[in-house]
Amino acid sequence: MAAVGKLEEQVGEVAASVEPGGSTQAVHAGTRRSKPFHSLNTPIIQTATYTFAKTQDLIDFMHDKTWGSGSEREEYGRYGNPTVDSVESKLAALDHGEDALIYASGMNAITSVLLSVLPAGAHIIMTDDCYRRTRQFCQTFLKRFGIETSIVPMGDYEALENAIIPKKTRFIISESPTNPYLRVADLERIAALGRKYRVRTLIDSTFATPINQRPLDWGIDFVLHSATKYLSGHNDLLAGVIVGKADRMAALRDARGILGGMVDPQNAFLLERGIKTLGVRVRQHNQTAQALAEFLEGHPRIDRVWYPGLPSHPDHAIAKAQMQGYGGVVSFEVDGDMETTIKFVDSLQIPYIAASLGGVESLVEQPAIMSYFDKTSEERLEMGIKDGLVRYAVGIEDADDLIKDLDQALAKI
Ligand SMILES: *Cc1c(COP(=O)(O)O)cnc(C)c1O
Predict the structure, then answer these.
(1) The pTM of the whole model exceeds 0.90
(2) Taken in order 403, 408, 409, 413, is the CA torsion positive or negative?
(3) I want to staple 204 with a disulfide (CB 3.0 to 4.6 A). Which of 175, 240, 277, 391 is the partner?
(4) Top-level CATH class of 10-45+81-275?
(5) Rounded distance between C-alpha atoms, residue 195 and residue 382, angstroms
(6) To test ligand 1's pocket by mutation, which of 133, 137, 391 has the most ligand atoms within 8 angstroms of CB?
């Protein structure tokens, strides 16, 4: 894997145990200090294939072919790309993993890891309150291959342990924090269950980012992000990433070459550019979301606020112990029906009404209308989604402006 270069050497001289902080890693990790043409930035190697000067070079390459980070050269664009490699090294360092793989989207990452690893007839366990498409993939696509999925309530570790079928269960998957209720999983506990029953564990850490949470440090096997969100940070690309131990990632790297979920070099460049500002952006998101959550919790037209940074959140204690910040998403229930909530959302002037999160612009949505539109009010209630529920993903605008905007919109209902 490409080293942090001079920075790592310098830090190494100070003390072997001192590691650069997340912001320093976001800027420097994975980036070679010297690049072609003395370019400061990682060049975009926009090529589908790579050439060999003579057949003997190809024969030599075939003899000791190593794919991926740190390899001397590449054979074909689906197997590797230097621009992509550079971002993978950065992401591996940020999440305290040994290797990272970038995919064409977050969903591509999650479907690829499961398709790559699961044998026929396997069983997997997922916690509820998770990204809807992930659940859909497990319950419909994987089912066709005889792979069964058990869904257990988030935060119920007894139910989780009871759902494990020895020798059959291969994966425990959870998001943390979850969408839309920002539930936070006890990562150490999940990792311990994984070790006890020899089940791999995967945490979708999209809402946290490596600045706020590092699941691998708690013993989790794989961490996954939709890089579309905070990592890229500008709502301008789709990408996904998986980070883990090198020996586990090797099989995934081979599988990506077959499944074909390689990210485009241009997107990899934009992702690296986004990651460089991850530290400052996430700290701002944390601070602003906390301010919004506190404002909303004190407002008479708001029934309930879900934010792990509030002591009223069911997982506040575990979030406090496990995370460096609580993230940029605040969910809340407006005191009123669907129509009232629509009026409130439409009265907001700063956030855009849009799916997604993690960019510099604030985005707002009603889960009942965005993700669960095809369900009836009753079906949604059964799934725990109230009509008055709003998910607000803060951008990096001034917190005071966002609060004033919320205040005027709430005054209209
Ligand atoms: C958006 C999202 C995904 C899917 O990622 P894409 O990049 O849109 O494919 C998966 N998990 C979570 C938590 C997400 O927010």
Answers:
(1) yes
(2) positive
(3) 175
(4) alpha beta
(5) 33
(6) 133
